[in-house]
Every structure is written in structure tokens, then in C-alpha cells.
Amino acid sequence: MQNKQIRFAAMFGITAILLAACSSSGATSAPASAAAPSAAASQSAAASAAVDAKDAKSAADMGGVDAVCAAGKTEGQVTLIATPANWANYGQMITDFSAKYGIKVQSDQPDTDSAGEIKAATDLAGTGRQPDIFDLGSVVAAAHLDMYAPYQPATWADIPDANKEATGLWINNYTGFISIAYDTKVGEITKAADLADAKYKGKVALNGDPLKASAGFNGVVMAALANGGSADNIAPGVDFFKKLSDSGNLLPVDPNDASVASGQTPIVIDWTYNQGGLIASLAPKGITWKVTIPSDAPPVAAYYNEAINKDAAHPAAARCWVEYVFSDAGQNTWLKGFALPVRLAAMQTAGTADAAAVAAVNAPATAPVQLTQAQIDTATKYLTDNWKFIAIK
Amino acid sequence: MTDSPVGAPRPPTAEADSAPGGVGSRRFRGAANYLALLPFHAYIAVFLILPTLIVAYGAITTASGTPTLENVALLFTDETFVDAFGKSIQLALSTAIAGAVIGALLAWAVVRGDPNGLLRQLVIAASGVLAQFGGVMLAFAFLATFGFNGLATLFVRDSLHLEILTDASWLYSLTGLVVVYTYFQIPLMLIVFLPSLDGLRQEWYDASESLGGSSWSFWRNVGGPILAPSFLGALLLLFTNAFSAYATAAALISQGSPIITLQIAGSLSSEVVLGRENVGKALALGMIVVVSLVMLLYALIQRRASRWVR
Amino acid sequence: MSATPSPLSAAAPQGGALVARPKGAGRAPRASRPQTGARVAILIVVLGYLILPLFAMLEFSTRGDFGSRSLDAYAKILSNQNLVDSVTTSLQIALLTVVGMLVLLVPTMVWTIVRVPRMRRVIEFLCLLPLAIPAIVLVVGVAPIYRFMGQNLGKVGGSPLTLALIDIILVLPFAYRAIDASLRSIDTATLADAARSLGAGWPRTIIEVIVPNIRGGVLSASVLSIALVLGEYTISSLLSFNTLQVVIYLLGKQDPFVSVAVSLSALIFAFVLLIVIARVAGGTDRRAQTRAEEPAA
Lengths: 393, 310, 297
Description:
The complex is a heterotrimer.
Chain A: H1 2-27, H2 29-48, H3 59-62, H4 65-75, E1 77-81, H5 90-101, E2 104-108, H6 114-123, E3 133-137, H7 138-143, E4 148-149, E5 171-172, E6 174-175, E7 178-183, E8 204-206, H8 214-226, H9 235-246, E9 250-251, H10 257-261, E10 267-271, H11 272-282, E11 289-292, E12 304-309, H12 315-325, H13 328-336, E13 340-341, H14 344-350, H15 355-361, H16 373-386
Parallel strand pairs in A: 1-2, 8-9, 8-10
Antiparallel strand pairs in A: 3-12, 4-12, 5-12, 6-13, 7-10, 7-11
Chain B: H1 13-16, H2 26-35, H3 38-59, H4 70-77, H5 79-111, H6 118-131, H7 135-146, H8 151-158, H9 174-198, H10 202-210, H11 215-243, H12 247-252, H13 260-268, H14 277-305
Chain C: H1 33-61, H2 72-78, H3 81-114, H4 120-132, H5 135-152, H6 154-157, H7 163-185, H8 188-197, H9 202-213, H10 215-231, H11 234-238, H12 244-252, H13 256-293
Helix pairs in contact in C: 1-13, 2-13, 3-7, 3-10, 3-12, 4-7, 7-10, 8-9, 10-13, 12-13
């Protein structure tokens, strides 16, 4: 009868919930208990090494890089944030790191931005799920110095003073250039001015709104430099994009790998390290993807910054990660991802830079332009008032 | 007053309470009635009201914590925000009506068949899934279908030799957003409205027929009024759903933040412009106010629509 | 006539104006031929429109190298252990959410209709409110609560299952509307009064009398809840829990073909799951219907 079925369903439901609760405490005890043994482990590591992982300011404090990474392995995992696999070859970086040190990598919120990383650290503080490592744009990095732990990796001396904070609170890790990436089927593009050509109607996409994303913002800067503007005056850049939008060349769509692979956004203005990886993966699919730095403007660059969360749940693993990314292997991984690592000059002198990757990036000889904080402020003020022309009808 | 379901008028509360022995005075029983709603309200208070208050607190303070009304004032003075509210409401209304009408038709087509049949269960399951389908993937699917190089665009152009879809720029405008939103509004309407179509009884149709009425007069005089309250409720749901939708719009129109949810996202998190979180929270409060006003309007219309139900 | 089922039970044959129509025994108005034509046309056009973008996703995700068709993208899905774990997690959260939603909502809504009609608008507004707040904003308010739970309630407080607590809220607008549609279509107040006057307590009234009659609404609400939990990304991601959508999203960053393949697969998985649930729920109806049609012996 009805009653029996309902009672059965209720019994089933309650049993299922109990099973869920039991298995969840079983399943989550694995990652959650990583926090418990890590406290024990770091204490025993602290007994043998001079300093507790969360206070270590360099590998020497803990007895060398290997000791750091061994402590990291005991902790079990490192929590990254905003490091999608297709951004600057992070996929390869994560795989290689995990394989080398046996530390599991938890990669959270791949698409969040720098402000989102800081927010995640505050929102999840003390829960064990907060990010251990930040990869921040310079604007945000400079604004939250009180959230980082100072740490100097083994290769500290190779990094120019201008690219790091004196005690190691933040270190420039990589940069790229604003590029025009396109499917060679649509034509040949060498400079920004080419984008206004009528045959590119409905084909051009900018990666992100300039008021929200660094790629979008610096894309406008690049257009400004190509049209008579400067780092202090981006109005010509905004006008250029307005022209593209009015003629129908510019799509308001957010380009991603899928939209490129399916031919919906055959021309993308973006960082070299976001687009370079597509060259190899799209070739077998019949798309010849070319990434070119526009010749009518000086190259536009923006360094990102590596920082360790002061309240990291896995401080040793975090420091192991930092050691890895600033090592030759890590820096070359970024290089292969069409990003320019901060130690490139030193590595080229020492002969440890991956020559093929350097050639593929094809960095122009001209000095790149990177906006200062003051210039960014002026630019965003102008954009807030003027980037409204892409009005939807 | 309240809209009671079809049936006899409600007897007074005290008489209907058949608990043996009674529980004392009528006033006590009245209070006890409200007490039974406590678990629901307690849960809502912790997990909905409290978060809303946290957001509201952010909306009326500055970044450093001092109270201020300037964030809220911006909603009325900054023309970008006023414009964005207007476009959001326009978008939500069009897609709610389109989704409601088409969804109701689909529900009618499905409810005619066997209630335990495979078609109905397939459609319910599919609708449940598609009602929650959105974001980057939905945008991609539409671009892959109706974009400049889309399947449908190319098919219509090359096989049917029609030029209507070739200029795909409609997809990247407000119209496009309406069409894409309607994609998840239709299944939502179906799954939320189907139970009320179930309530239409065969006898009512037979009675209408035997009195000489046509199918049209049945719907106009019997079916329509009975379904009106549920239809309006579903319409309200669809409106609110579209009004607060974010991920799909972000993928399709990532430049210029023309609608309010994109403005909020830009304020809450931006690589480039910092310190605008509290403006975003004020905008969110504005959204709640708009929905409250729409709900008020709905309540008024609902009162009229259910007036005959007594 | 000998023993007939209780007139209030949903298994009773249709009779009397006060008795709710048992599920399955009645139908919407009979279709005449032009209406059948219209019905089929609507089904084909609308369902066709809904399937078209999914077909485009299928076409894209099966593109192989050098113009061939291939299922490589789908093969890559199965090899991912994280994905399997996240499916389990999400299913557990979905179950908790459905149960929590039903326990919270059904008695409340019934009680509102029967005892405190004045609260109906208030409850309706409260149930609509979660939808008025975009997830990106809601998480701003919810994060402190989860931080508190994570810091102070140990293993349970930091478990992904706590997502059910906020998913119940997210699901309220849809569940309320679906259940309300059903409650409006039966004479809830009289049913409840009749059951009570025959001596049933409130739990029994709700579980054995009201719920069987609102089966359609409960099913719709459950279907929407499960679909919502399986499709929820924003809050899970911002609270750093590895649910299905979060893992799918991460997977998709490696390869665009895989990202479309895995999204389509997740849709199909949810679809199959919901069909099973709809069949199970519909199956019990069939038994009720058969019983109603048995001659009283």
C-alpha cells in the first residue's frame, strides 16, 4: 500500500544520509587529516630543522630545498588558486611538480582574478581549504602585503631587484606580451591596424573587459600605443576599439579555447601565454593558429607575482612549490608556455634557457611597456567613463 | 485576502482543531500555529537572512567601515547603473514572457498523454536538466549553433539558401541574450507549471462541452482562470531567474557590462579596479528591492486573478 | 459494497467532489484530432529547438584529428579519478538537499494553507528571495558562516556535504513553485481537516494523505533540486569544494574538446538519473491506479 512505500522511502532516505555522513567523514578525513598530521609533521620537522615551515624565510632555514620538499610531502598537498591548465602552461607545471615531489596539487577557482584570490584567502582562513600560493597581478599584489609570508627561493640572486620585494613578500614570476592570435585561414595580420579591415567583420574578440581583466586592459593599452597614445593616455585605444565595435568587427563574446577551436572567435587579442599553447593542439584539427606581437606598437607586458599565503595550511609544500617554479625546470616550463620567466636573462647567460622555446616566443627587441600604478589609475578612470560604447541593442 | 484553493470556504480555526483535550484559549492556539513555522524561519534566518544582512551591511558602509549612503545613492545618480537596471528588467521581462508562453504550450502538449508514460517522464527529466543548464557551456552551444560559423547558420545558408541567419550579430545583442535565456526558461516553466495542468479535470471539460462550449470557450472561461494563479507564479519565478542570471551573460557579452549582474561582478572582483565591492553590494540590494516591487505587483494581480476562487 | 479503500486514500476510485483525484485515474481534457496535430507540432518544434544546441556540442566534441570523428575526448573523462570522487560527493549533497528541502518545505507549506493563510505571502516571498540574489553576491554573505563552520566544527564543518545547507536555500524558489502548483490543484485544507477529524495526527496527515496527492509537485521539486545541485558551480567553487561541476570545469581547462564532452556527459548523466527517479516515482502510481480499478470484491 501507499504507506509501506512511503515508510520504505523514508527508511531508505535516512539510511542513505547516515551512510553519506559516515562515508563523508571517512572520505574527507583523508584531506582534512592532512592538516592534522601536518601540524605533527611540521613539529617533528621543526625539531630536526632549525625553523618551523611557516616561519622559514628561505630553504636554508629548513635545511635545504630537499628538506623543504620532504616536509611538503608529509603535509600532503599544496593548494593553488587561479592557475588554469591552459594559462602559461600551468598544466605542465603542476604535473611535473607533482611527479617530482609526490605532493598532490589542489587547483581551485581556475578562472578567478587576483582580487578573488585574496578574497578566497580571507573567506577560507583557518578552514584548511584556503589557498597556499597566490599568483597576483601587480595592482592587487601591492595592496595586500600583510597577507604574505616572506620567502627567498634558492635562485633569489638571479632575480633583478626591480622584480622582487626586498624580503621576498612578492616576486615577479612571469610575463607575456599582448599579442594578436589568429587562424591563418582568415588572412595575415601583423599589426593592430589590420584588425579594422572589413574582411574581419564578426571575427575579433578581446579577452576580457578592460575594467575587469588584465588581458583586456592591456589590450586597450596596446591599441593606444599603436594609435598615437601613450602609457599615460589610452584614449586612442578606446577610440580604436569603438571603431571596431561600430563596424561589427569586434565581438563582445568572451573568447576561450573552445570558442577558438570551433572557429567562433578566429582572432583573439590576448597574452601570448594564453594563446601560444593552442598552436600545437589546434594543428591536428586543421587550424593553423598564429600568435604575433603587433608591429605598430612597443610590446605591452605585465608581470604577475608569486606570493605565499602567511596563513597557508601547507606552508612547507607552498615553499617547495616556490622553489620549483623559480628553478630552471619551472622557469623553462613557463617559457615553453610562451611566457617570459623572470630569470630569463640569467638563464640565457648560464645557457640553461630552453633555446627552442625562446625562439618560439620571439620576443621583440624593443623594451616592453608596463604601466605603473598611477598610470593604471588614470587609465581606469578614463575607461569607467568611456568603455560603454559596446551597448547592446 | 488570501487565495484558498478550490473548495468550500474555510471554517474558523478553533472549530477545526480536533486535537483531543484542546490546548487552552484560542489566543494560545493562534500563537502555537505560528510556532510550527519556526523551524522553517529559523533555517531561513541563518542561511538566507543573515547572509543578506551581511551584504546589506557592506552596502551601507565604506571600505574602511564607516557608515555611508553614497553607495546606495549611486544607484540613482550614476546613469550606467540606471541604464543597467533598465536593461536587466527589460531582458528579464521579455524572456520570462517568452519562456512562460512556450513552456506552457509545451506543458499542455505533454500533459495530454499518458501520465505514467515514457514521453512525460523523458520530458520532465530533460526539463529538469536543461532548466539548470547555463553559463559558458550554454553560450558555447549557442555560438556553435547560431554563431557566424554555427551549424544552423551554415545549414540555412548552404543547404536552404536562405540568408536570414547569415548575419549572426543578432546573437551578440539583447535579442540574442533573450533567445539564449529562453533556452533554460522554457524547461523551467514546463517543470513548474505541469503539476497545475494536472489539476484540470476531465469532468470540467466535459461539462463545458455538454453546455455547448467550444475548446476556446473552455480555456477562456474555465481553464484559463483556474490556471491563472499558477501561471502568474511561474511567470514571477521566470522573471526573477532571468533577472539574477549571470554566468550566461558573462560569457556572451563580456564587454561593457550592460546588465546589472555584470556590473555587480565587475564591482566585486576586478583585476584592475579595486575598492568597489561595497558598490556591488549596494547594487545587489537594489536587485532585491526590484524583485520585491515585482512581487508586490504580482500579489496585486494575483488577488484579482483568484478573486473568483471562493 | 464490501471493503473499499478509505475515501481519503489516493488509491480510492474517483468519487465525491471533496476527494482529490487519484493520480493516473484522471486525465487532462481528451484530445480531438486537430488538437493532437497541434500537440505533436509543438512537441517537435520546441523539443527540436532544445536539442539543437546539444547536437552542436556533440558535433564539436567528437571532432577528431585531420577531419575524422573520434571519441577521444570522452575517453579522457573516464580516466580521471577526481571526477569519479566528485560525482559521489555531488550525489550525496543532492540527496541531502532533496530530503532537507522536502522536510523543510512540505510541512511548512501545508501548515500555511491550513492554519496560517496570512503567512502565505510571506513564505512565498522568502522562498523567492534566494533567486533574487545572484550567487556571486550570496556567497559574500555565506562565506563567513562557512568559515565559522570550517574553523570550529572540525571534520563535519569542513566537509563538502555542508554545501547541502546552502543548496537547500538555492532550491527553495523552484521547489516552492512546483509544490505550490500541486497544492493549489487539490483541496488541501479540506483534505487535512477531514483527515484530522478522522483522528489522524499531523505527521500522518501530511505523510499519508497530503503528500500522495501532491506527488507531481514533489517529483518536480525533487527533479529540480537534484539538477540544481549537480549543476551548481559558483558557490562550490568559491568555497573550495570539489563537486562535480568544479571538477568538470577544471578538466575543461586542459582541452576544449574535453570540456565540451564532459559537460555534455554530465547533462546526460543527470538526465538518466532523473529518468530513473521519475520512473520509480511514476511506477508506484501505476500500482495505485491498478488497485483503484480492481472490482470491489
